[in-house]
Amino acid sequence: MTSLDPVNATPTGLPVSSEALSAEPVAESGRAGAATWRVFRRDPLGVISLGLLLLLVVVALAAPLLASYPASYGSDVLKPPSLQYLFGTDSLGRDVLGEVIWGTQQSLLVAVAASIIAIAIGTLVAVIGAYFKRLDVFISVIVDLTLSLPVLPLMILIAALIGPSTTTIIGVVAAFSWPEVTRLVRSQALTVVNLPYVDAARLMTTSPVWIIGRHIIPAVTPVIVVSVVVTASRAVLSAAGLAFLGLGDPTTWSWGRILYEAQQSGAMSSAWWLTLFPSIAILLLVLSATLLSIAYNDARNPRNRAR
Amino acid sequence: MHNHSTRRGTMRTGRRRGRVLTLVTAAAAITFVLSACAPSAPEASTGPVEAGNDTLTIATTTDVVNYNPLIGNSRSDYWVTNLMYPHLLSIADDGKKEPQLATEWGYVDELTGFYEIRDDMTWSDGEPVTAEDVAWTMNAVKKDAPSGTFYGQLANFVSAEAVSDTRVEITLATPDTSIVEEIGFWGNVVPQHVFEKAESVATFANDGSDGGWVSAGPYLLTDVQVGQSYSMDRVDEYPLVEGGTPVAAKVVYRVFPDVNTEILALQSGEVDVIANALPPAQVEQLKATDGITVEEVVGLGYAHMTYNMTNPDLAKTEVRQALAHAVDYDAIRTVVLQGQAVSTGSSPLMPVLSDYYDKSIKEYDFDVDKSRELMESAGYTADASGNFPVSFRLIYSLQDSVTSQWAQLVKDSAAEAGITIELQGTERNTYLAQTNDGDYDIYAGNFAIMDDPVTNFTLSYLPGGAINYTLVDDPELNELIAKAAVTADSDEKISIMRDAAKIVHDEVYDNIMYTQNLYFAHSSEWEGFVTKPSELLSIVNPISVASAHKTAAQ
Is the pLDDT of residue A110 over 70? Predict the structure, then answer.
């Protein structure tokens, strides 16, 4: 785990006291959830981040109301930001504000879709590995192997081979994001499967599906929630990177495509607004997602609640 | 090979009719075409400029991959090797050939061509450049078949012989009235005494590992820093440049990641010239920038779309016409190309080929109602939302930013006519593979030099032609092209070609959209560049680089 991983802030991976153990893995009941929210509310960074994320979601959903879809061309080419064009225009005279707004839709779609796929695969593999000890060795090897692959060159290779489209981007990003999720969830799940209540559950049923579904997955949900946010922001970065390299969907607006087209048209050196605004959008999304996950993580930590 | 923005190996040379027709004299040949477009460019100073001690730094975006000019190559390869290995012929703005190493050329009889070459050129190791070098190069290329345009020109070539120190004669398999100029323009001449040591010229790396390079000028490659720079020193004797010696003492090609960084480097004075053509949207801005001069280079090629006739829908003439009328050509030229392109009247005979150009052929109007009528007369009925039950997949290269931009406009305007176009922009190699396999409904791309109509029509519209992307086979058109190829009388040939162009236009066998003029930027501290058509030659052709000098005030 890198030091940037917000989950590191939890005592999960460390030798933990029995008190912490009993408090930690319990699924967030109504009371625990309310407690988390109370603590979270007091963290201004977390609230601001949540607000920003919600704002981006609203922008994405309300795109048709906020700006018309960027036309194929306009007459005012490469105009700097003004009252008429708040974010300026690009080399085909299209409104950059419209491109950024419609790009939000695509970027959030990639973020959500890729992280859902990654989370689903990652969690499933993690809990199976944690529950069935014999598979765990095998799964750990696969995860370590995938994590050690040079991700960016492989993403570029695959995207180039399959051809650029939104589906490709989602698939590629998801394919390289799930091992990170597996690693996070597995470390938590390993603790959970050894807890007395899981042993108790084994006495009640022989169905591992039931135990995993009813007891283990709920216990690791907080970690999953954190991974969703982290994976999503990483997906946005990867998607923007691929799009900037010309491997994004060339027919749908995304933040990466705005950057790519600015580079292709040779306008980067003169038209600062072409790169500034989509970059700010990417920064906002990634930063707020990261801060949100840290704030949430802090808030659900019982030690912080006590304060 | 000679990459323009999208295609390769398709630039064609002019055609020489019948026997020896015009013998162009060397003295009258090299004209200095200084562009009038540069607002701040002072007139070139009069009188020859003396060779100085300056270094001319040129920006490029790619490394040199092949140092062997006989192997298919990229732009940087072409630019660097072009300063060392001379061509027999050069090209003028209207596509006519001009002397370079050769002073005279033509035909002895139907099956024999000839070149007379200069007697005052030497290789940098002191050996003279002789007819032996020329003949040996041609024979070696024929024998070893290196991949590239040069070998592609040798289909009807049998052998070459140096009949004297300055005269080469080539024997042909069948009469071919364009081959002398084609070989002369596309083929480099390499030093026999260096290249013959290699087993095959097709595999010879010529990477200087055997004691450096041997050049006939104007410059000699001396130092290579892969990924960074290619340094070349002046060759003292270069008779093709005024004064006999290249002006700049050194030429350094520097490698940059992309055109944005090249522009920044030019603005900061790090480089003196950008070898790549400027993106259309940057031209006005750079023209207005102090200290930067922008030169215009006429276009000698065209951008086009072709409709794959093996698709049953596109096999119908009305459907192709409907598509042709659903494109806003004016908007594409004004917005995407910023007015830097001219209409060809939707004809492959571009205005720049003034002899052939036919004013009576008019560009397809942008008229979506007409498109709808044509679709209906082809038997299609629009659904409730006005869309016809057709969908076409248009391919283009993502590396070609201009085409990528107008492809979107084509899609949007076709949608107005109820025709669905699905854009498929891909990475260049995928695009080339799709093109070769005919894996597209509509192909969008461009050619850098299309100066000889008969050769172009042969390749573009005859069945089996290398660039017959429409996959057309029209007996009437085939007959006209075949007839033009054996017609010696110039007026008659032009008339036949105009008839052929009319068929191509009316049947929409090709949708020629514009000829793009290119713009190149250099520092105002330098002047004396000589422009030549296309990005390959532009202002970095050997004569231009050898003539460039610092402005008088410096």
Answer: yes
Q: Give the pLDDT score at A11.
A: 39
Q: If you count DSSP H runs as helices and E runs as strands, how many of each does chain A have, helices first?
A: 15, 0
| pLDDT band, very low/low/confident/very high, at A222 (cuts 50, 70, 90) | confident
Residue B240 has pLDDT above 90, yes or no: yes
Share the mean pLDDT of chain A.
83
Tokens of A160: 């180039």
Q: Shortest CB distance from A73 goes to which of B331, B401, B404?
A: B331
Ranges assigned E (strand) in chain A: none
Closest CA to B412 of B516, B336, B345: B336
Who among B281, B399, B413 is closest to A265 (CB)? Answer: B281
ipTM for this model: 0.72
Q: Per DSSP, what are the bridge partners of residue B342?
A: B515
Q: A59 to chain B nearest CA, in Å?
A: 25
Q: Under an 8 A CB cutoff, do A164 and B404 touch?
A: no
Helix (H, G, I), strand (E, B) or coil at B157: strand
Residues 6+ apart with CB under 8 A from B123: B129, B191, B193, B214, B215, B216
Show which residues on chain A lie within 8 Å of chain B, measured between beta carbons.
Answer: 71-75, 77-78, 91-93, 160, 163-164, 246-247, 250-251, 261, 263-270
Cβ contact B50:B185 at 8 Å? no
B279 contacts A263? CB cut-off 8 A:
no
A18 pLDDT higher than 60? no
Residue with tokens 């993502």: B398
Q: How far apart are CA A18 and CA A25, in angstroms?
A: 11
What six digits make up the tokens of B223? Answer: 């130092």
Task: Render the burial of B378-403: b for 16+ CB within 10 Å, e for the rest.
Answer: bebeeeeeeebebebbbbbbbbbbbb
Q: Which residues of B touch A251 (CB under 8 A)?
A: 408, 411, 423, 425
Cβ distance B335 to A160 less than 8 Å, yes or no, reads: no
| Distance of alpha carbon A216 from alpha carbon A209, whole angstroms | 10
Q: Is B282 part of the contact surface with chain A (CB cutoff 8 Å)?
A: yes
Q: Over the stretch B465-517, which tens digit does the pLDDT of each residue have? A: 888 999 999 999 999 998 887 777 789 989 999 999 999 999 999 999 999 99
Pick the residue of A258, A265, A272, A274 with the most B CBs within 10 A to test the interface with B by mutation: A265
**For residue B17, is pLDDT > 50?**
no
Region for B189 from its dihedrals, namely left if φ exceeds 0, alpha if ψ lies in -120 to 50, beta otherwise: beta
**Cβ contacts (< 8 Å) between A267 and chain B: which residues?**
260, 279, 281-282
Give the C-alpha distances (Å, rounded to integers) separating B487 from B77, B259, B434. Answer: 37, 45, 36
Cβ proximity of B313 and B319 under 8 Å: yes
Task: Give rounded-to-5 percent helix, strand, coil for chain A.
Answer: 75, 0, 25
| Chain A hits for B259, Cβ within 8 Å | 266
Structure tokens at A256: 């990466």
Confidence label for A158 from pLDDT (cuts 50, 70 and 90):
confident
**Cβ neighbours of residue A87 closer than 8 Å, sequence gap 6 or more:** A81, A95, A96, A97, A99, A100, A273, A277
Gyration radius of chain A over CA positions: 22
| Alpha-helix residue ranges (DSSP H) falling in B228-378 | 259-267, 280-287, 317-324, 329-331, 368-377
List pLDDT tens digits, range B35-46.
333 333 344 444
Under 8 Å between Cβ of A72 and A44: no
